[in-house]
Amino acid sequence: MTGMRIVAVLLCVLAAPAYAQVQGQDYKLLTPPQATATQDKVEVIEFFSYGCPHCYALQPLVVKWAAQLPANTSFVRVPVSFGRREWGQLSRAYYALEATGDLARLDDALFESIHKENRPLFSEDQLASWAAGHGVDAAEFRAAFESPGVSAKAMRAEQLSREYKINSVPSLIVDGKYSVLGKTHEEMLKIARQLVDKSAAERKTAKR
């Protein structure tokens, strides 16, 4: 191989995206793959619970990570309970705060109250009192918490966790088919970002 050809090959290698390619080490394939809600974008789902200490540790990292995702990506969070009543109440709280428009403002605060302040926020009364203490109208929060819309979303979240075969949190799913692995939170997010690029490339190839 001539010097020029060697340089050309090296440039091609350097220009290639660094995809996470090791199945069983970087990711697991979901069988069967699931249809995503955003057909025109690569969908990333974070399955989590406010009651999970590992989700609490991941929260500041994943917020920053999600803000840096490309425009062709959709980031979705799904609270799950695994049948635990306390976590089920927290799932409803997530959707209730979303309904009142306070989720973005109080998302981190709910994690902090449970894991840093050790507050038992596992019932509607406790959560309504907490929300009121953070500037949310208690009656409005209760109405949302008990609404059919919030019930439907919480039930759908549990259904999704079963369809995606989620048995622990936090869990990241990329484009309905890649379940992200990794030994640390930082590694999980790095692999997930590589899988976003991998999925985007696969979508482009499929359209040709």
Give an overview in words.
This protein has two domains: 1-80 and 166-208, 3-Layer(aba) Sandwich (Glutaredoxin); 82-163, Glutaredoxin (3-Layer(aba) Sandwich). With 208 residues, it is an alpha+beta fold. The chain has helices at residues 3-15, 53-67, 85-100, 103-115, 124-133, 138-145, 148-163, 185-207, and strands at residues 27-29, 42-48, 73-79, 171-174, 178-180. The chain is built from eight helices and five strands.
Give the end-to-end Cα distance, rounded to a whole number of Å.
32 Å
Overall number of domains: 2
State the helicity in percent bands.
40-55%
Unreliable spans: 6-16
Question: Which strand order does the major sheet show?
Answer: 1-5-4-2-3
Q: What CATH architecture of the largest domain do you see?
A: 3-Layer(aba) Sandwich
Q: What is the highest CATH level, the class of the largest domain?
A: Alpha Beta
Task: Give the amount of beta strand, in percent.
Answer: 5-15%
**N-to-C series of helices and strands:** HEEHEHHHHHEEH
Q: Describe the largest sheet.
A: 5 strands, mixed
Radius of gyration: 20 Å
Which overall shape is indicated by the principal axes computed on the Cα atoms?
A: elongated
Supply the helix-strand structural class: alpha+beta
Task: Annotate the secondary structure layout.
Elements: H1 3-15, E1 27-29, E2 42-48, H2 53-67, E3 73-79, H3 85-100, H4 103-115, H5 124-133, H6 138-145, H7 148-163, E4 171-174, E5 178-180, H8 185-207
Parallel strand pairs: 2-3
Antiparallel strand pairs: 1-5, 2-4, 4-5
Brief summary:
With 208 residues, the chain is an alpha+beta fold. The protein contains 8 helices and 5 strands. It has 2 domains: 1-80 and 166-208, 3-Layer(aba) Sandwich (Glutaredoxin), CATH 3.40.30.10; 82-163, Glutaredoxin.
